[in-house]
Structures are given as C-alpha cells and as structure tokens.
Automatic annotation (TrEMBL):
Stated role: Required for formate dehydrogenase (FDH) activity. Acts as a sulfur carrier protein that transfers sulfur from IscS to the molybdenum cofactor prior to its insertion into FDH.
Predominant cellular place of this UniProt entry's protein: cytoplasm
Top-level taxon: Bacteria
HAMAP family, alphabetized: FdhD (MF_00187)
Bilayer-spanning residue ranges: none
Alphabetized UniProt keyword annotations: Cytoplasm, Molybdenum cofactor biosynthesis
Family membership noted in the UniProt record: Belongs to the FdhD family.
Gene: fdhD
Organism: Nocardia goodfellowii
Subcellular location(s) of the protein: Cytoplasm
Protein name in the entry: Sulfur carrier protein FdhD
Active-site residues per Swiss-Prot or TrEMBL entry: C111
Length: 273
C-alpha cells in the first residue's frame, strides 16, 4: 500500500548558506469512494486508515448509522504506471442500498447551503442527538488533551504537514488518533474507528483536533453524538452557531492552560461561570 510519507529534492536556504537535500513530505492521493460500484465522491487524503475514513464519512453524511450497515468495503483493482495497485478506490456494499448522487453532500464547499438552512439540515439529519445533561470533564484533564494528541502525531513529526484528530474519555485517556492532510479526513477516520468499535453514539467521548474548528468538523461531531469538541485554533462563526444549536460544547484556542469556551460551558468543571 502507498506510504504516508515521500521524499522529494529541495534546496534549503538559510542565513548561513544553501544546501540541496531531500525533504520528507506527507503523501496526498485521491480516494474514490464507490457505493455498489457507483462513484459517490473523491477526497484527497493521506493513505492509511481508509476503512475508518469511509465509515466516518458515510456516518457524517447520514448514509449509515452503524458499522453493521456496511456489508463489505474492498479496494478495487487499479494500477499505476509500474503495474502496482494504487489502493485509491474503495467500493462499499451496504446492507440496504441507497441512491447514489455523486458529490451531493452538505459538507462540500460549493453546496450552496449557509446559515439557518445549513443548521436546520444538520439538526434534521442527526441520528444521535446530544443529551443536554451529558457528562462533564475537569479543566485540568481538558487542557492536557492537546499535548497528549501532539505526542501521538508520528507522521507530523516527520513532515510537519498533517492534521490530527483524537478521541478522549473525560478522564483524559486517549483512545484513538488519526492523521491526515485534510482535517475533515482526520475526523472521519477517528469517528470511523469509533463506529467500528461500537462507540457511536459517542456521548461519553471528547473530540480534540489539532487545527481550527470549522462548521464541517462540528457537523461531523454532531452526527456521531460527540458532546464536546476542542480545537487548538479558532472556530468559525457558523461552527459556533451549529454547536449552540445542537447542544455541543465547543472550545477553541485550547493551548496550555488557556481556552475560549464558545458554547456548553456547563460540561467543564473547575471554572467559574
């Protein structure tokens, strides 16, 4: 299977001079997802955990609800110029087939949905509503999670070019980490892991991401029933609106002992409200 890193020549320029040397880069390749042989979508991803990615993607698009909804997911034959399988096409067979409408997804950038229309759409599609009285997390455990996630980003250490997503228990135990060149793919991969481990609805888990929190990432968390999303960087305005509308706790700028709590502060203990 394709490696997650590749070497490319580079000319490095510094204050003390120039040197030619190879650099380690994150691999980016297309993954075509098919349903029953029909093309559904193509996403650019870092190879690895593709089965998890497909499970998470189909969950977030409301096509499946459990891992049992998928009968099989197999790579199709496809070769490069050297005759090797590219492992870039996955054909999924569902227990109950659904009509295939290529690229007709809420999460595509050109879908034309925005504001209240998008919020209503997500709320209407959610199979696992977030309980209003969900569990809590201590502020010390929460602030330690980004560092725990960072310590498990092996490919980022080699390339500096990948996003990460991790699922934690409220006591700070890191259950799973996935990396990808696309932040949405990293989240799909880790939520796909949870689905395959029968941890969805994920009402007892916390999702931490290494970058910003977009509308799309909040939508994916809501679809899996995750009650809390923490991001190292900033959320978007629509992400905050969706979190508030869905009852999700959204934390941004989660760095060291500092954070911004945008919604759902009642789930975080040890703070004065």
């Amino acid at each position: 299977m394709s490696r997650v890193t590749a070497r490319r020549p580079t000319l490095r320029v510094t204050a003390t001079g120039e040197v030619k040397r190879p650099d380690t880069l994150a691999v980016e390749e297309p993954l075509e997802i098919r349903l029953g042989g029909q093309s559904l979508t193509v996403t650019m991803r870092t190879p690895g955990s593709d089965i998890d990615l497909v499970h998470g993607f189909l969950l977030s698009e409301n096509i499946i609800a459990t891992a049992d909804d998928i009968v099989s997911a197999r790579y199709c034959a496809g070769t490069d110029e050297n005759g090797r399988n590219t492992y870039n096409v996955l054909d999924v067979h569902l227990r109950s087939p659904v009509p295939v409408r290529p690229r007709a997804f809420l999460t595509t950038g050109a879908c034309g949905l925005c504001g209240k229309t998008a919020l209503d759409e997500v709320r209407a599609r959610t199979r696992y509503p977030i309980p209003a009285d969900g569990g809590t997390v201590g502020i010390a455990a929460l602030t330690a999670m980004p560092e725990s996630l960072r310590a498990r980003q092996a490919v980022f250490d080699a390339t500096g070019g990948l996003h990460a997503a991790g699922l934690f228990t409220p006591d700070g135990t890191l259950l799973a980490v996935r990396e990808d060149i696309g932040r949405h793919n990293a989240v799909d991969k880790v939520l796909g892991w949870a689905l395959r481990e029968n941890r969805v609805p994920a009402h007892d888990l916390i999702l931490i991401v290494s970058g910003r929190a977009s509308f799309e990432l909040v939508q994916k968390a809501v679809q899996a029933g995750v009650p809390m999303l923490g991001a190292v960087s900033a959320p978007s305005s629509l992400a905050v609106d969706l979190a508030a509308d869905s009852g999700l706790t959204l934390v941004g700028f989660l760095r060291g002992a500092t954070m911004n709590i945008y919604t759902g502060a009642h789930r975080i203990t040890g703070i004065q409200q």
